[in-house]
Amino acid sequence: MQQRTFFNMKGYFFFIYFGLGGLFPLLTVYLQDDVGLSGAQIGVITSIGPVVMILIQPVWGMFSDYTKRPKLLLTVASIGAGLSGLTYVFAEDYFLFVTIAALLAVFQSAVIPLSDSIAMNYVRRHGGDYGKIRMWGAVGFAVAVWIMGNLSDLFGLQVIFYGFAIVLFISAFFSTGMPNETATAKVDLKGGMRRLVKVDGFMLFLFITFLVYGPIMANNFYFGVLIQFVGGSLAGVGFAFLLAAGSEVPFMRWAGAWIYRRGILTILFAAALISGLRWIFYAAGPDPVWIYVTTIMQGFSIGLFVPAALQYVSEISPKEVRATAVSIYAAVGNGVGAFFFSMSAGLLIDWFSILAVYLFYGVCTLSGAFLLFVLVRKQPHIVRKPGT
């Protein structure tokens, strides 16, 4: 029974991230090349989602707390996201694109937090490794961009919307076999925030998350634009994402052991430093071959930063407000950070070029790495031994 549950959770993560990987990295290319929108317009479309998620995600959380049926909500959200993404096929007007992006975000704001919460609570109660479940999302994302990039070369970019809908419906099937795990702690943003601002390192880490994780999220939209700018093809975009997202898999698998040996903050610092150096390298406009070669840096940065950041927030937060802390952390990284860096990217493309976008990302991420180094010096006990 437990093996079947793990299989369904892994299957859900694989297909939900397959859908996200097949759509968002190529959506920006579609809006720029096929529709002919400006950088600023694309910036609005790519940044409207994070804003909606900040507003709607707590509503899904309240529904989950009230109904005690997160699995059902996850199924509904997966189907709703698939149908919303499919409507891109019929859109031609800029404002309709914005509306669809907002509608898709309403459902998307539930699928990742609910699935993460279900998986985290299940392994906490029954044993297991969240990283080994979550890595199947990285596998799905990597395979998706490669497959959809090649299909787009053959049939046109609109194929990404049909592919997105199909795999989201498949993910909904897997969600029905997931456990109906609910968090034991309630999210109290107002009361919890009053306590969390007094937690040593929490507010600083939120700012670091904004600087480091925001560019990581925005890169999913603009990496394809960079590949094409330096002379790559749509198939090349898919190949680059296959290497980049695929490299996350082994690092997510090893993350738990590395965090235990080296300490959470040390791993976070190393991940942020590598990520920042990667963006600076891309700002130089290298040949596509060198971008493909260096994509393994994504595995080291994202594959380690995501599980380590979540663990750090859980470690430093009082148990009673841990759910609130994780919710705020997710809102800053996935919401505020993704919005700011997606919106700014569109403007920088109009004013300069995609290379300026990655220079900006690099400077911000390296600033976050420096602040993590400061945090390492302030909290040596967390560096030495997680969980103390």
UniProtKB/TrEMBL annotation:
Source organism phylogeny: Bacteria, Bacillati, Bacillota, Bacilli, Bacillales
The species this protein was found in: Alkalicoccus halolimnae
UniProt-recorded Gene Ontology molecular function terms: cytidine transmembrane transporter activity; uridine transmembrane transporter activity
Segments traversing the membrane: 12-31, 37-60, 72-88, 94-112, 133-149, 155-175, 196-216, 222-243, 264-284, 290-313, 325-349, 355-376
Pfam family, one: MFS_1_like
Keywords: Cell membrane, Membrane, Transmembrane, Transmembrane helix, Transport
Subcellular localization: Cell membrane
GO cellular component term of the entry, any: plasma membrane
Protein's name according to its UniProt entry: MFS transporter
Domain Major facilitator superfamily (MFS) profile positions: 5-380
InterPro entries reported in the protein's UniProt record: MFS_assoc_dom (IPR024989), MFS_dom (IPR020846), MFS_trans_sf (IPR036259), Sugar_transporter_CS (IPR005829)
The keyword Repeat is assigned to this record: no
